[in-house]
Write a structure and sequence with these properties.
Layout (H helix, E strand, L loop, with lengths): L11 E5 H19 L5 E5 L3 H17 L5 E3 L31 E9 L3 H13 L4 E9 L11 E5 L6 E6 L1 H4 L3 E6 L9
Parallel strand pairs: 2-3, 2-4, 4-5, 5-6
Antiparallel strand pairs: 1-8, 7-8
Helix pairs in contact: 1-2
């Protein structure tokens, strides 16, 4: 007899559009503060939502500093350590600003920091492109459960989670709205499916 699995609880919003705008403004101020007015900062978003967040941060930094902030994207698909375990993924675009990254402060931008494996892949990809003077990490949400010794320099929200929970970031550019949703994974039935 198969066990009856209750449906997962509906996801609840932990950040809405005004919260996301506020934390991005705070992160932009923190980046400017730590860069100490340096004009060699480059923002690189990790597709998909990290790219949108990088562009938003660049716009906020331009408002703060009055300078245009170089922004690009860094595809990590071929650097992932789970390529054999998952279905084939479409390659995203890597777009490096014309100034390049050599000798510059690169801020990697992503939506959720979880195991750290995505960031490890991003560091490998970055190493193949050039040699920045420093690399920092900005994330909208840090949910814990690191498998590698990686931490973010800038965090919008620390969100302690269990491994049964999911964190879904929605951004207007991709999803039609801004929110961060915390939900519960559907558990497998008694026979493993």
């Amino acid at each position: 007899m198969d066990a009856v699995i209750p449906p997962p609880e509906p996801a609840r919003a932990v950040l809405e559009a005004p919260d996301i705008a506020r934390v991005l403004t705070r992160i932009a101020h923190e980046i400017d503060e730590r860069a100490k007015g340096a004009d060699d900062v480059v923002l690189l978003g990790i597709p998909t939502r990290g790219v949108f967040l990088a562009h938003r941060l660049a716009a906020k930094l331009e408002q703060i500093t009055g300078r245009t902030m170089p922004v690009g994207s860094l595809d990590i698909t071929m650097y992932r350590d789970d390529l054999r375990m998952r279905p084939a993924r479409a390659l995203a675009r890597t777009e490096i600003p014309g100034e390049g990254i050599d000798g510059r402060l690169v801020v990697l931008v992503d939506d959720v920091l979880f195991s750290g494996r995505t960031i490890r892949a991003a560091l490998d990809a970055l190493n193949d492109i050039g040699r920045p003077r420093a690399v920092q990490l900005a994330v909208l949400v840090d949910r814990g459960h690191r498998e590698l010794p990686i931490r973010a320099d800038y965090v919008g929200k620390n969100l302690p989670t269990s491994l049964r929970e999911t964190v879904k970031v929605q951004l207007t550019e991709e999803d039609g709205r801004d929110s961060v949703l915390l939900g519960t994974r559907a558990t497998a039935s008694a026979d493993g499916q």
